[in-house]
Amino acid sequence: MTDYPLPNTSQDLSGQVALVTGTTSGLGRRFAQVLASCGAKVAITGRRVERLEALAEELRATGAEVEPIALDMRDSEAIVACVEQAEAALGTVTILVNNAGIPDAQRAHKMDNQLIDDVFDTNLRGPYVLSCEVARRLIAAELPGRMVNISSVGAFNYAGQGAALYSITKAGIIRMTEALAVEWARYNINVNAIAPGAFASEMMDGMLERMGDISKMFPRKRICDPAQMDSTLLYLVSPASEAVTGTFIKIDDGQGSR
Could you point out which of 7, 30, 127, 188 has its C-alpha 20 to 30 Å from the C-alpha of 51? Predict the structure, then answer.
């Protein structure tokens, strides 16, 4: 027995309802699996319905309570409807992971207006609309919440190889995190961000195909595995991070420090 309080490190998310965007592959899929494994009910979202259903079946087989919801982050009305469906099926959303994003993969001066709109709306406008919708419901219900926005080390480092707008939107996610954290702190809604480096995903596969094996430039010469982000995600949504809001955590394996 100790005569001092035990560390506040619980990762039990029982009673929590999580909504994760972009769960049909890569990081989002892993985030949904991790949150479900810790006891949260999870609304999984994305545009590829067949993949959503497959992930839902996989998670249900482990005993998790899951609601798959088709969602295009470019559609504001669909975003509101998604939150309504998640709440009707699982309860008030208390954990939001803004993960969905698309690359531009194009030089800035060569991008057409439709691609510009798609990248802005998916990567920045959509997450803002979704965050506000979730916050409105948390405030009305007088419940605390945790929001984790997925940015990128591209918000801080840009090599000039055809991802300017992606970098701009991910920098916007950092500023959105800081601003909303200040505005919603009084309601006990914590807003933080993770800025990953090169992690295995469909988006990364496309980059590797276009640019070659970029891992050779990294200090550890590797592409990271999404599971290496588990502890950070769980920290930011757990009671242990109650006083942490408006910050971002880089997870880049030293890639951005070269």
Answer: 127
Catalytic residue among 128, 166, 187, 235: 166
Identify the CATH number of the domain in which residue 99 sits: 3.40.50.720
24-33, 212-221, 244-253: lowest mean pLDDT where?
212-221
Cβ atoms of 21 and 46 closer than 8 Å: yes
Could you give the CA distance from residue 246 to residue 236 in angstroms, rounded to a whole number?
A: 11
Active site residue 166: yes
Contact 189, 147 (CB under 8 A): yes
CA 66 to centroid of chain Cα atoms: 17
DSSP per-residue letters across 23-71:
-SSHHHHHHHHHHHHTT-EEEEEES-HHHHHHHHHHHHTTT--EEEEE-
Q: Report pLDDT for 222.
A: 80
What angle is formed at CA 18 by the lines to CA 92 and CA 184, rounded to 5 degrees?
Answer: 65
8 within a domain of the structure (yes/no): no
Distance CA 46, CA 51 (A): 8
Q: Is residue 189 domain-resident?
A: yes
In a domain, 24, yes or no: yes
**Residue 248 and residue 170 in contact, taking contact as beta carbons nearer than 8 Å:** no
Q: How many independent structural domains does the chain possess? A: 1
Lowest mean pLDDT segment, chosen from 23-37, 52-66, 119-133, 219-233: 219-233
Q: Is residue 5 part of a domain?
A: no
